[in-house]
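Run log, item B.
One chain of 464 residues. Sequence copied directly from the ordering sheet:
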Amino acid sequence: MRPGLSAAAVLASVLIASLVVVPAGAGKPAQPATPPNIDISQRHTNESEEAIAVNPTNPKNIVMVSNVEGGAPGMLEGFSFDGGQTWTTKLIGNNDNRGDACCDPSLSFDNYGNLFLAYLFDVEDTLPIALSTDGGLSFNVIANIPGIAKRNGKGADEKGLFHFVDQPTITAAAGEVWAVVNVGGPMGAFGAPVTGLGQVGAFSTREVVPGTNNCTYGDVAIGPGGEVMNVCTLTESGQGGGKLFVNVDPDGLGPAGFGDRVFVTDTHIGGFDFIPPQPDRSVDAEPGLAWGGPHNGRVYLVYTLEQKNESDNTDILVRFSDDQGATWSAPVRVNDDSTVNSQFLPKISLDPTTGRFAVVWYDSRNDLGTGGAGDTDGLPNDDAQFWGAFSNDGQTFTNNLQISAGTSNSYDAHNRIDYGDYTGLSFYGGIAHPAWADNSNSTGNNPDGTLHQLDVYTAAVPAP
């Protein structure tokens, strides 16, 4: 039996009565067909931890960046100018003046067509931020936020220098761009003004988000009035525990700074919760934010909840706030299956043209260990597919849609980090563009074959 398998994976199906659950199929259209899948990377070795972004000034222009396993430093970039039908790929960050660009990419376009990229170096003593003004054809590093390899245990030393730990996130909107990352204890937040294409001011370099010590794996969103919200996971001992907190800066680049943290919910998932489909790397709650739309500046929060500690029964939930994070709605379960299998690593994205939002995630609902399309090895709950759903308001969701054409198994990839820590999603013009790690070889062009190394896949998913 592989690491992480538990008897809970084969329990009878149940619905969790304590949650607000949208009943599958009630008053909803039939589930659409799985969209055509595209293997972006088509490389030997593993690619995972994907970021993807659609250019609002040219929605046919889509850019993806992911980790690559081993070998020379750098990350894999893919860019498309035909809506994601065809892709050009290349390694980036491998010829910069540092020579040790590593991993954990995050991407965001703004309304001017600026594309921002944050990532990590192997030696994490600066946080690089790169900019492309030509739709991803080229990047230039515009900031190296200073840090140090060792600090005094409080996130910043007496000179205010940081140690950058894991998973930076960058988000851009009209007039500003923000990056957040754990800085060796608390979360650090770094913002800069933007006035046009290629016109980016200096990043702030000294702001620590209050009350976020040991809070990690965060996200950042910019509100309609320039407000900024950070969310992160406060981990506890073992695989249980795990609490989500938000902090809000009410005036963004103004003088106010981030306010005190607000508790949102428990997740029953610590920083490293081992589940059968992610047996080596484990998962965190992976909270994500989306802010905007027609509901008075409503902000949406997606996260993973384990129904009972060590049950492996993890679900994808959404809450929303209409008062800038001061209070939050009851949770709604997004995955509409009736199994106790695992759903994990969600991503959320809001379409600024419609105000609707999409959520995507890995899903093991079809792996009952009895063979069939969702089972590769006769073991329950260790294989995964990629699924998604859409919502107008965070209260009701469309029927879940299977996005991946095939079924993957991360253990067979021998990637050390399984599928990685996160997935990618960009929703614009009524079409969601997810990115995920996949070794099903459903498209027949993974050079490593079926159920070996992971490639980065995508699809164009129209909202119903």
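Observations after the first pass:
- The helical segments are 410-413.
- The first helix runs from residue 410 to 413.
Flagged for discussion on Thursday.
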